[in-house]
Amino acid sequence: MLSKIVGSAVPVLAALAAFLVGAVMLLVLGASPLDGLKAILDGAFGSGERLAATAVKATPLILVGAGISIAFRARVINIGGEGQIIAGALLATVIALALPDLPSVVLIPLVLMGGAIGGTILGAIPGVLKAYASVNEILSTIMLNLVMVQFMNFLLRGPLIDPLEIAAGTRIPQTQRLSDNAALPTLVEGTRLHLGVVVAVVAAVIAYIVLWRMPLGFRLRAVGHSPEAARAAGINVERNITYALAISGMLGGLAGAILVFGSEGQRMITDGSAAGFTGAAGFNGIVAALFGGLHPLWTIPSAFLFGALLTGATQLQRVLQIPAALAVALNGLVVIFVISSARFRSYIQSIIEKRPSNRASEDLERPYSKIPGVDT
Amino acid sequence: MSDFFTLTVLVAVVGSGVRLATPYLLAGLGETVGQKSGVLNLGIDGVMQLSAFSAYFVVLKTDNLMLGVLAGLAVGAVMGVFYGVITIVFKATQGISGIGIFIFGLGFSDLLFQRLVGTPKPIRQLPTIEIPFLSELPVVGEALFQHNPLTYVAFILVPVTILFLGKTTFGLNIRAVGENPHAADSLGVSVERTRYVAILIGNTMAGLAGVALVLELGIFQPNLTQGLGFIAVALVYFGSWRPSHVMAGALLYGLVNATVLQLKARNIIPLSFSELAAMAPAVLTIVALVILAQRVKGPAALTKPFIRH
User: Fold this and answer.
1) B46 contacts A371? CB cut-off 8 A
2) Cross-strand pairs, A186
3) Which of A260, A327, A328, A300 is nearest to A58 (CA)?
């Protein structure tokens, strides 16, 4: 019990340490950390509207984070969130462009499904490459991110560009305003809170159920725990590695569709970079997942926390003129601190449980299992 | 298309290919040294951005290129110490801590740029140095011997790295702790110290790669590298951890990029397809990884922290 409490306290303390470094950064940049904290809290929770903005910001992080949790449980690392979001958004956009007149009850599920399929395809590619050609999935997913950014730029500046942008000569890389029938309905009048938030939470819960209550989840975790043992038990390791990345990508793609059809402009728009469209959700999702202990359910509150940091950071920029990029730098530090605390945590736990800590050296042969929160 | 295959154009392509290969080569060589010691550093893209910004900022303020280079090297070294503590003291999972370094570098360089500079202002670029006699040779002179100093440094570092890893005691120690840290340890080689130094070398070279990039462009912008550091990591894999092969890979990327630029400039590729052409390096990387993944084997202890039994 004590061991469990310490187990969950260590990553939280690690994240707090990262935020302390953030406070020092604020000091160095000439702003008071207390004012900074106030601005962030005010920006993230200060009004109903801001709370809604926080929830909307958290939405893709929940989905990407849940997906990353699933992949990591099967011991595959999915860094391809950015590309998967873009792939889902593009396919969903094309569907809305092709079938704009379908009624909402049909079109909304259709574009969400389109997003999921787009992401699944992009996740399955590195999955197949890893399972059947031993291609390192970290590298292949990163490369696919780079490929998808350019593909998005190509489509949004070329075939999919808003005809009005050509007519006006401004050529902003964006699509035309997409069918209102595909717009995700607003949940609370006067705020941006839309159905996508609910979809994301439900998807994370389903991810949890699949992972711990369904045979598929059992197989994925078995492969993550020990591929050799899984194979001996008759589990098709290659197929399940592919599934893990495909499902992870599916959730990212769904996030992409939600980003498009939950946006104010009701269109896909970029500034030529991946983050210009995704808001770097593919990377921030990693942060949310790690802080959530790589558990789909814990990823939900964790994503809200980092969503709050992101919306709060815009307020930081308005009030204290501290660039919102501070939130990105902080996210990086959180990843570093939380992942660095993992061994510290198992060390403390081994003392509490009075078990020999040389078990740790055995775990090292399986580097990916040494991630905070991964049950062994 | 026909006017592409003229000698002048080809010389220009090779020349700019060598130039564009520089940051890939510097980062790739550094990553090779790090990985040879058993440490994967996925964060070099972030380190490159931090070093690029520091060099940019120092040159902007002092107009002194040498100080800029030193600033970039120093930031790379500091990040090396940082990453050494993460991987050696805390023994963090390397694939993920590296992504943390990348995100930090991306955000922090952006933060500093917006806060300290704001609107992009151009800075002095590196001068071209024409190697006496050699640069006057027909064809190869222009393509190979009229470059900026960092390009020469990068290519000189190839044989230096080969000799360092293959002939010096310390280089052999690096390889030993990357292959079999326990054996190296029992022979009295300090695994941790060796890895620290290898990480330090790798990050400092990544820093230099960032410097080369920004002083070549003469301007800084957020996310300056656009994934170049990640491609450099991949380069080590399909260069099979051999400096000479990493150089060949870097040259290939440089040439691909130069060809795309040249085709664009000559309107052979319509402007609207330039983004598709820009997909080439990443696609090429994936294809290369597929072809080589099962044929080459990296250092046996790569990504495995060392714990004495």
Assistant:
1) no
2) A194
3) A300
The answer to whether residue B247 sits within a structural domain is: yes
- How many residue contacts between A and B have a Cβ separation below 8 Å? 179
C-alpha span between A280 and A273 (Å, rounded): 10
The answer to whether residues A332 and B45 touch, using CB atoms and an 8 Å cutoff, is no
Q: Are B256 and B174 in contact (CB under 8 A)?
A: no
Indicate the pLDDT class of residue A365, thresholds 50, 70 and 90: very low
Q: Which residues of A touch B305 (CB under 8 A)?
A: 364, 367
Count of structural domains within chain A: 1
From the list A194, A372, A176, the residue with the least C-alpha distance to A287 is: A372
Q: How far is CA B265 from CA B15, B259, B271, B272, B280, in A?
A: 15, 10, 9, 13, 17
Q: Which residue's entry shows tokens 């550091």?
A: B229
- CB neighbour class for A342 (10 Å; exposed up to 12, middle 13-18, buried from 19): buried
Chain A contact probe: residue of B45, B83, B85, B96 with most A CBs at under 10 A: B96
Using the Cβ of A370 and the Cβ atoms of chain B, whether some distance falls under 8 Å is answered with yes
A342 in reach of chain B (CB within 8 A):
yes
Flag whether residue A27 sits within 8 Å of chain B, measured between CB atoms. Answer: no
Please name which of A252, A254, A230, A233 lies closest in space to residue A241, comparing C-alpha atoms. A230
Pick B92's closest partner by Cβ from A328, A332, A342: A342
Token representation of residue B208: 């230099």
Q: Give the Cα-Cα-Cα angle B193, B235, B22 (nearest 5 degrees).
A: 90
Its pTM stands at: 0.91
Residues of chain B predicted below pLDDT 70? 1-4
Q: Cβ separation of A367 and B304 shorter than 8 Å? A: yes
Domain with A158 in it: what CATH number?
1.10.3470
Domain range for A18 is 2-369
| A373 token code pair | 């929160």
Q: Tell me if B299 is assigned to some domain.
A: no
Which residues of B fall within a CB distance of 8 Å from A326? Answer: 107, 111
Residue A159: inside a domain: yes
Distance CA A279, CA B185 (A): 46
| Domain presence at residue B306 | no
Closest by Cα among A370, A374, A364, A340 to B304: A364
Contact residues for B111 (Cβ-Cβ < 8 A; gap 6+): A25, A29, A322, A323, A325, A326, A328, A329
Cα separation of B127 and B150, whole Å? Answer: 10
Q: Please indicate whether, in this complex, the C-beta atoms of A328 and B42 are within 8 angstroms of each other.
A: no
Closest partner residue to B294 (CB to CB) among A133, A142, A326 is: A133
- Beta-carbon separation of A332 and B234 below 8 A: no
Residue B205: domain span: 2-292
Residues B65-76: pLDDT tens digits? 999 999 999 999
Rounded distance between C-alpha atoms, residue A191 and residue A340, angstroms: 39
pLDDT digits (tens, 9 = 90+) for A293-338: 899 999 999 999 999 999 999 999 999 999 989 999 999 999 999 9
Give every CB contact of residue B8 below 8 A, 6+ residues apart in sequence.
none
pLDDT tens digit sequence for B121-180: 999 989 888 888 888 888 788 888 889 999 999 999 999 999 999 999 999 999 999 999
CATH number at residue B94: 1.10.3470
Query: Is residue A22 assigned to a domain?
Result: yes
Q: Is residue A174 part of a domain?
A: yes
The secondary structure element, H or E, covering residue B129 is: strand B129-130
Residue B158 falls within a domain, yes or no? yes
